[in-house]
Amino acid sequence: MNAPQAPTISFRELRMEFPRRRSRPLVALDSLTLDVGHGQVFGLLGPNGSGKTTSVNLLCGLLRPTGGTVLVEGIDVRTDVTGVRTHLGVVPQETALYNDLSAEENLAFHARLYGVPRAQRRNRINEVLELVGLAERRGDRVGTYSGGMQRRLALARALLTRPGVVVLDEPTLGVDVQSRAALWDRVRRIAADGGTVLLTTNYMEEAQALADNLAILDHGLLIATGTPEELRGRLGRTFIDVRTARPDPALARLPGVVGVSWHDGVASVAADGSPATIRTLLDRLTEQDPDALLVGVRRPDLNDVFLSLTGTALRDRGQA
Ligand SMILES: Nc1ncnc2c1ncn2[C@@H]1O[C@H](COP(=O)(O)OP(=O)(O)OP(=O)(O)O)[C@@H](O)[C@H]1O
């Protein structure tokens, strides 16, 4: 049997506080411990302000943690940031491309800056432009590119050094559906070729489509990890959505019911899916509210997981 491989990225008890003028420091990340294995797409999923970009900035050595550490291929970011960066290709949220230069010129500049040997530069640039589907537009000024094309070029730039680990911060933020599909396709290909991808996102759909494993962050806390399938499986097999006044929490104690969340006037009940459970639930809901309206019966998705877990995390922290 092969010995298990050490993780590519290890976050260990990572904590980041930002000082504030008139109040206690803001805890952007609270004791994050997480391993990312080789050759997978790992998604950091969470709402705005949950600590995703902070995690990425700590990983790249752009921020110094208040506590804990990050290791990339066993190298500690705090003591050898240059060593860590040799393994990383990063696509930041702000693409920071030179708009007045062409795609090719942007890449040539980056290749020189990051020490790609002169003899290899032309081939590498051709290779990454092909990979992101921009070979035809290589000579055009980047200022004339669409947002999605700029994102693809930023990915090409990150791949120039053939890094083992590619980090993408919100890769498809503000990107149209076609470019999104193209980017997803490239990301999958990186992992299929043996690379490790860490991406942050607050799109459930993106996490579902791309991630082999997920970590869900909320207010700087890690609230769940697992494959998308495992996370959805926590909520039973069926979701029953009913438009109603705020439901009685006692519903959650009915046999066959896994949990109840309430959002935008719709109660979503996670249940085992048996007809008896569904019947009892609907009876109870209409007893409570004669105007209750069944919206649908469906499989839970990651959004349901997030809503239910966020409620739990807030309660755990005594804030609910
Ligand atoms: N340089 C900074 N100084 C002060 N506070 C910061 C700084 N960077 C981030 N924060 C705060 O830390 C928290 C986490 O921010 P972060 O950018 O990591 O969230 P995020 O999950 O990436 O959000 P988004 O999806 O909006 O990008 C937020 O409350 C944010 O305001």
UniProtKB/TrEMBL annotation:
SUPFAM superfamilies, sorted: P-loop containing nucleoside triphosphate hydrolases
ABC transporter domain residues: 14-244
Record carries keyword Nucleotide-binding: yes
Record has ATP-binding as a keyword: yes
InterPro entries reported in the protein's UniProt record: AAA+_ATPase, ABC_transporter-like_ATP-bd, ABC_transporter-like_CS, P-loop_NTPase
Species this chain originates from: Actinomyces ruminicola
Keywords annotated in UniProt: ATP-binding, Nucleotide-binding
Gene Ontology terms, MF aspect: ATP binding; ATP hydrolysis activity
The name this protein goes by in its record: ABC-2 type transport system ATP-binding protein
The organism's taxonomic lineage, starting at the top: Bacteria, Bacillati, Actinomycetota, Actinomycetes, Actinomycetales
Pfam families xrefs: ABC_tran
